[in-house]
Amino acid sequence: MNILVCISQAPDTTSRIAFTNGDKEFDPNGVQFIVNPYDEWYALVRALELKEAGGGTVTTLTVGDASTDPVIRKALAIGADAAVRVDFKPTDSMQTARLIAAHAEGKGYDLILCGKETIDYNGSVVPGMVAALLDLPYVALGTKLEVANGVATVMREVTGGEEEVEVTLPAVVSAAKGMAEQRIPNMRGIMSARTKPLQVEAGSADAATVVRTFSLPEDKGSCKMIPADQAEELIRLLREEAKVI
To answer: What CATH number should be reported for the domain holding residue 141?
Structure first.
């Protein structure tokens, strides 16, 4: 089975975020970047498990400039067979989806796996866009994935329980927590990642959105502590001063 895993770069959650160019662009200076956890821990690892169980290849695809190469190499160190980077710096989800679809078109991938979202934008839209552009079936937010006889069986959480979906391959699936367990690259994987192929392709796509401005959330206000025996004061404050966010 030939599997494509979409890998994106995201800021580490401990990084201090700032903006530049009149608050229209994210400022990467001083930011530690990592492989987006949903892509790495769930999509990539489950792809590797499927390859180990039934054979095939796992290729990663990243849309970005050369600054994303370190996270791509980490994906190779975890076990991916090869990697492709579309050399383009996207500014919105539609650009990313168009470039992923342009690469995948006609390549014969049996399964395209993506993390359910990136931890910086939390959009959850790219996998669905890719599926629509390629005219492939799509299952979102999968927590379990099995493949047999050209059919993918995906378990996903829905309101009030779980839903099992069967879809004929090729298909696109987005991975949520539960699909796999995180793998730590070992020394052998790290060394072999240096020699695995990383193909760079030119790419270009029109943006579907325009960024007007970015802004940081407001600082948290102070916490007012009310003694347990002053319930009336607590009720008054909730009625008169509490803000609904």
So the answer is: 3.40.50.620
Residues 97 and 63: their CA atoms lie apart, in Å, by 9
**Ranges of the chain with pLDDT below 50:** none
CA distance 171 to 83: 20
Q: How far apart are CA 144 and CA 157, in angstroms?
A: 10
3-state secondary structure of 31: coil
164-223 per-position pLDDT tens digit = 999 999 999 999 999 999 998 888 899 989 889 999 999 999 989 988 999 888 887 778
Q: Flag whether 148 is in a domain.
A: yes
Domain residues for the domain of 117 are: 2-214
Strands (E), 55-104: 57-64, 82-87
Contacts of 74 (CB under 8 A, 6+ apart): 35, 40, 185, 193
Task: Decide if 245 is inside a domain.
Answer: no
pLDDT in the model for residue 244: 59
Q: Containing H/E element for 152?
A: strand 151-158
- Asked if residue 6 is part of any domain, the answer here is yes
Q: What are phi and psi of 19, to 5 degrees?
A: -130, 160
pLDDT of residue 243: 67
Q: Please report where in the chains the tokens 């989800």 appear, as a residue.
A: 93
Report how far residue 152's alpha carbon sits from residue 132's, in angstroms, rounded to the nearest whole number.
Answer: 18
Domain-embedded: residue 232: no
